[in-house]
Write a structure and sequence with these properties.
single chain, alpha+beta, Glutaredoxin, Glutathione S-transferase Yfyf (Class Pi), Chain A, domain 2, 2 domains, 5-stranded mixed beta sheet, 8 helices, 5 strands, 53% helix, globular
């Protein structure tokens, strides 16, 4: 299989999961501005949506959208315990978390990266992010990881998007000691370091 990624983008999440699960896969960097891959291919012909992550399976089938990809990868290596068993209540709770991260946190960062966003618009989304991370902080007061005391694919996703706060200069950590400790804990995982090193982030 092959993962198309852009360094530090949300594709870091499945990249981490590949390393956590011990799944061998090709990776290819995508320039999201030019929509060209490192090999010179037109990325829009691979994924017409034009964004990462994109996972190409060995038979040529494509999977897009990070929450779907990370669950697929987790199910390829159930022994790694990166997702609860399909059909179980904890699996639906994991999907709940992935949806929350995707729609309430990930998408709230988007206007902060856009040069045409007004200061008022950016401030509104910063305030929304702060409220969402208050919920995360409360959860992390009870558990080591976002879904409990086991690292899951939701942690790979939450870690990835939370790192963006440093890029857009939003302080999430001064008043959230549990979140700060969590980010350090996840960053120290060998698989996370391997994925970040592979993307040139460390």
């Amino acid at each position: 299989m092959k993962l198309y990624f852009a360094p530090g983008a949300c594709s870091l999440s499945p990249h981490i999961v590949l390393h956590e699960a011990g799944i061998a896969a090709e990776t290819e960097k995508v320039d999201l501005g030019s929509k060209k891959t490192a090999s010179g291919a037109d990325f829009l012909k691979i994924n017409p949506k034009g964004y990462v992550p994109t996972l190409q399976l060995d038979d040529g089938t494509l999977l897009t959208e990070g929450p779907a990809i990370v669950q697929y990868l987790a199910d390829q290596r159930p022994a790694a315990k990166l997702a609860p068993e399909n059909g179980s209540l904890p699996r639906y709770q994991l999907q709940e978390l992935l949806n929350f991260i995707s729609t309430e946190i990930h998408k709230s960062y988007s206007p902060l990266f856009k040069p045409n966003s007004t200061p008022e618009m950016k401030q509104a989304f910063i305030e929304l992010l702060q409220r969402r991370y208050d919920v995360v902080e409360q959860t992390l007061a009870k558990h080591q990881y976002i879904a409990g005391d086991q690292f899951t694919v939701a942690d790979a996703y939450l870690f990835t998007v939370t790192n963006w706060s440093r890029v857009v200069k939003v302080d999430l950590f001064s008043n959230r000691p549990n979140l700060a400790a969590y980010m350090q804990r996840v960053a120290e995982r060998p698989a996370v370091q391997s994925a970040m090193r592979a993307e040139g982030l460390i």
